[in-house]
Amino acid sequence: MSNASKRVAIVGSGTIGKILEGFLQADHQITMVNRQTFSNTQWQDFAIVCLAIKPQDFKLLTTLPLDQALVISVMTGITTTTLMQITQSAKVIRTMPNTPIKIGLGMTAWCKTPAVTQAETDWFQTVFSKVSTLLDVIDDDGIDKATAISASGPGFIFAMIEQYSTAAQALGLTKEQAELLVIETFFGAATLLKQSGLSAATLREQVTSKGGTTAAGLAAMGSDNQWLEVLQAAYQRAQELSQ
Ligand SMILES: NC(=O)c1ccc[n+]([C@@H]2O[C@H](COP(=O)([O-])OP(=O)(O)OC[C@H]3O[C@@H](n4cnc5c(N)ncnc54)[C@H](OP(=O)(O)O)[C@@H]3O)[C@@H](O)[C@H]2O)c1
């Protein structure tokens, strides 16, 4: 995209709006639009408009005159069809980032409408890949699935870490000792998995000797896949929010 098309409005200066501002401001001319400045905003001044307000606030807007702009949404539960209707723009990229984007380790699922050009897609990928890994999930249903898996995912992982750490304390360690052992184990295992190129199953087999401690722990874990229920519940809720 040309320099002239680097004028970006970010609507909503909350948690996600500020993160977007942080990684866009080096190469773009940013205008933060808040509740106070919203009604006086000259929308035609912007080639790109990022929507980072709560879905319930967005639904209160009847229309936004963004017909010339590329619209980037991070809002949960607002479909590309609704985005096109309210913004009056045919060019919409719907994204679903997760909170590790704050430290440049985000996972962003995205999809786009057919009118988005290749140059705009390239721009989006270049900019968002600075702070997250990207996956084109093709459509709104893909976004609902990613909402369950990667956007809600940090919450599931934090809950797991809490439980793991509570169990470690029950063995007689202090909170600090337990948390250090648990957090470093999660971090090291995830990094090894990512960097080694090996599957989780292979790495699990490598650390599981017959009759050893890992084998004893894994036997106690059982083979029930509780993640299926967790993800189905979150996916179903994402679908309800998209209605
Ligand atoms: N936080 C996450 O982890 C996460 C992850 C993925 C996606 N998202 C999505 O990102 C969006 C923003 O989330 P957030 O956590 O950043 O919310 P937030 O911290 O509540 O920020 C939203 C901001 O938008 C402002 N606002 C409301 N209506 C506005 C309007 N008409 N014009 C301009 N500003 C307006 C709010 O002002 P007031 O304070 O006055 O209400 C608030 O400052 C949500 O749709 C959420 O689903 C969030």
Summarize this, please?
This protein is 50% helix and 14% strand. It is an alpha/beta fold. It has 2 domains: 3-138, NAD(P)-binding Rossmann-like Domain (Rossmann fold, 3-Layer(aba) Sandwich); 153-241, ProC C-terminal domain-like (ProC C-terminal domain-like fold), CATH 1.10.3730.
Q: How would you describe this protein?
A:
This protein is α/β, with parallel strands linked by helices and 243 residues long. The chain folds into two domains: 3-138, Rossmann fold (3-Layer(aba) Sandwich); 153-241, ProC C-terminal domain-like fold (Orthogonal Bundle), CATH 1.10.3730.10. The protein is 50% helix and 14% strand. The chain is built from eleven helices and seven strands. The protein has helices spanning 15-24, 35-38, 55-58, 80-87, 118-128, 140-151, 153-170, 175-196, 200-206, 213-221, 226-241, and strands at 7-11, 29-33, 48-51, 70-73, 92-96, 106-112, 132-136. It has a seven-stranded mixed beta sheet with strand order 2-1-3-4-5-6-7, sandwiched between helices. α7 (153-170) crosses α8. The longest helix is centred in the C-terminal third of the chain and has 22 residues, at 175-196. The mean pLDDT is 95. The site of NADP nicotinamide-adenine-dinucleotide phosphate has 22 residues, from α1, α2 and α3.
